[in-house]
Amino acid sequence: MTPKQVLEFAKKNNVVMVDCRIIDSPGLWQHCSHPISQLEESTFEDGYGFDGSSIRGWKAINESDMLMIPDPATAFIDPFMAHPTLVLICDVVDPLTREPYGRDPRHIAKKAELYLKQTGIADTAFMGPEAEFFVFDNAKFGSGPNHGYYEIDSVEAAWNSARDEEGGNLGYKIRHKEGYFPVPPHDTQQDLRTEMCLEMEKMGIVIETQHHEVATAGQAEIDMKFDTLTSMADKLMKYKYVVKNVARRHGMTATFMPKPLFKDNGSGMHTHQSLWKDGKPLFAGNGYAGLSDIALWYIGGILKHSRAIAAFTNPTTNSYKRLVPGYEAPVNLAYSSRNRSASCRIPTYSQSPKAKRVEVRYPDPACNPYIAFAAMLMAGIDGVINKIHPGDPLDKNIYALSAEEAKNVPTMPGSLDEAVRELEADHDFLLQGGVFTKDLIESWIAYKRDNDIDPVRLRPHPHEFELYYDC
Questions:
Q1: Contacts of 365 (CB under 8 A, 6+ apart)
Q2: pLDDT tens, position by position, 340-398
Q3: Of 53, 132, 226, 265, which sits most exposed with the smallest number of CB within 10 A?
Q4: pTM given for the model
Q5: Which of 418, 368, 429, 427 is nearest to 103 (CA)?
């Protein structure tokens, strides 16, 4: 839509408020609202002022004034507000220079797409994330100097086979790792996921499928049709917003935390990727699994830089509790056709050149999608520019390799601290074309150490009391 069309759309829908949204560094939407009378065609150039120092990972307080510039193409009606509310996703600029803000995640995504065009390799990067999540009936947690605990629950969870809070236990609990994908009454959330899909479709998101996922206790997946990088990141933010708010509408709670359950699968975000130019796919060819050289080089770049970009694609300490062998998480850095134990999989559902793509399986949905997608694209571009071949494919169950075979297969970092150190050592490819900046990378590393790594590292873990209290 154009600015004029947005105003007409707002009038047609009797909008009374306009809600402007930006995304902070960790990856959560932030917003402020204005009466619809405050939205004019000129607003799409003038923007709205806000305090950038209050956004996580952004400006210092002595340079806090910033502007959010609404993107008219992102307009949609919020389905969760009691009063008709128009939502606009915004870009962030400096009020003095009018230059885009270097730490704005959406700006980084746009720069990555522009850089791809400037290389001449391709003009379009498509992303297709498969974000998994859990919907629980209850979630309690807390920590302090003298305590630390969490408790989550779901009526369909395996541990509730003896619970009497259902007016007599009704059975049909989903056993650990057996949630893919039984029909009701085991699957208790079919209608809930359908409602999520319908709300997403109202926002213009094309839904391909929805189903229960492998873990017990309400793990789910809804798949969207692929789209261009920045647009897909916008849609993923809408996706997460809908999932959380539909769950809340029903008195439930949804989380994209990668590993909320012990001894069961965590939530990943397998991300399908492909490059196109002049409307033609570039990943189809005569090589392994029907791939082109460009596709193989792209995979080579991804595999080479995975340990560094993990700081963006798997950005929490909890992410690395998912990235362990035995829970379908791709720990090993290898590629293969159809093989879900490889970090880069070549799907074979269709032989159409348009369907040829690589599925990068290690990202998780806790990431900031704008930054994570941009980082993966930059790694892939580096692979194409430098013709980095990924080596031989690994067409076997990597988890079943002997110790002798496994030692030659590189692996993902074992912790966020390790990933951050890898990013410190390997980030020149991200700086190409000015897509990422030194400032962004340094601020990201500092934020992760101060707000994620150290707070978890310094706290006693509840299980340590079971292990060591009597020492």
A1: 129, 131, 132, 133, 240, 256, 258, 267, 268, 269
A2: 778 999 998 888 999 999 999 999 999 999 999 999 999 999 999 999 999 999 877 76
A3: 53
A4: 0.96
A5: 368
pLDDT digits (tens, 9 = 90+) for 93-125: 999 999 999 999 999 999 999 999 999 999 999
Distance of alpha carbon 58 from alpha carbon 25, whole angstroms: 7
Any bridge partners for residue 206, and if so which?
none
Radius of gyration of the chain (CA): 23
C-alpha 155/C-alpha 224 separation (Å) is 27
The yes-or-no verdict on residue 407 having pLDDT over 90 is no
Model pLDDT for residues 274-322, shown as the tens digit of each residue: 999 999 999 999 999 999 999 999 999 999 999 999 999 999 999 999 9
* Cα–Cα distance measured from residue 174 to residue 57, given in angstroms and rounded to the nearest whole number: 40
> One-letter amino acid identity for 460?
P
3-state secondary structure of 147: strand
Nearest-angstrom CA–CA distance, 16 and 81: 11
Contacting residues for 455 by C-beta, under 8 A, at least 6 apart: none
Judged against a pLDDT cut of 90, whether residue 168 lies above it is answered with: no
- Would you mind telling me the total number of residues written for the chain in this entry? 471
Task: Kindly state the tokens that stand for 408.
Answer: 């030659």
For residue 186, the tally of other CB atoms under 10 A from its CB is 17
Positions annotated as catalytic residues are 51, 130, 132, 213, 221, 270, 340, 359, 361
User: 328 falls in which pLDDT band (50, 70, 90)?
Assistant: low
From 224, 236, 228, select the one nearest 364 (Cα to Cα): 236
Considering only CA atoms, which of 390, 243, 364 is closest in space to residue 309? 364
d(CA 463, CA 140): 17
Q: What proportions of the chain, in percent to the nearest 5, are helix, strand and coil?
A: 40, 20, 40
Model confidence at 402: pLDDT above 70: yes
pLDDT at 403: 75
pLDDT band at 52 (very low <50, low <70, confident <90, very high): confident
Burial of 204 (0-12, 13-18, 19+ CB in 10 A): exposed
Cα–Cα dist 343/330, whole Å: 5
3-state SS, 157-200, equals CHHHCCCCCCCCCCCCCCCCCCCCCCCCCCCCCHHHHHHHHHHH
Ranges of beta strands (E only) in 238-334 are 253-255, 269-277, 280-281
Q: What count of other Cβ atoms lies within 10 Å of the Cβ of residue 354?
A: 12
Nearest to 257 by CA among 288, 219, 210, 300: 219
